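Input chain follows. Return structure tokens only.
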Amino acid sequence: MLKKIIGNILLGTTLLSSPVWAQASENTEMPFTPAPSQEVTEVEVFLKGYVFGLRIAKVKYKTGFTDDAYYSLASMKTSGLGAFLKKWAIWSISTGRFNGMDILPTTHLQQNLNKKNRRVEMTYGADKVDVSIVPPLGSQGVPPATAKQRFESDDTLSVLLKLTMGGFKTSEKVCDGTVPVFDSKQHYNLRMERDGEKYIKQKGFKGDTIRCKIYYDAISGYDPEDLPSEEEAATPVTVYLSRNDDIGMYIPVKMVYKISGFSAVIKTRDIKITKRTVNKLDFKGLGFAEQETRLKRINFLAKD
């Protein structure tokens, strides 16, 4: 359960089809129409995770978005901490679009780099989500998540973008309401409650933040042993959000989870924000294999 909590702290419609051209005669040249340029905002965040004051995780998160589309990347490695957290590594990619009121995921790719090397590919269609898991899971939970629950939920990376854009692009208020999530097996809600403000001073950031309590409500797709305990369900992850009006986003700068004498903290150590003009948003329209190639080409994977 701890692995999921830490991972969740961090870590639609079909793809646009190709344009259909009118048939040209043999001697008619097709006019060239360049793709319209658009501004993309890119936010890259470097984080470190601590348990009992010991650094156990390095995380990289990056998102890029235009007025109508987005991508999100995450890469994490943990060093392990006995029975509390196994050594593991994972990276993931999500793509999608904005419809003016909300985000609509298009694809989600997740690659575990442990012994099983499990790979998850999720493709959002007009009314369902196609999920490929290799090697397959032994169970889809009791009861499994329904097709409707899967489709009406966001993937784990898209939901993070939705939370950070609350009050700007995806909702009227920041840290408000409930967001459904589907992680390829388990379906749960993230329930948010705003809890005042706090000045944060740490390496990599200092300034005013909004304190947001996020509760994890399990719904379906769980094996009995994976269900959160009563104490876990009642204990929120506290996230501190820094408001950035120039990009329309709240950036998480600190996340804290405390339960029964156990304390896990994730701190943002560096934030890079860039704006540039492009003809096409990175990762947009790429297949899963192409997404992976692109991720490795930009050297995004977290280092030890």
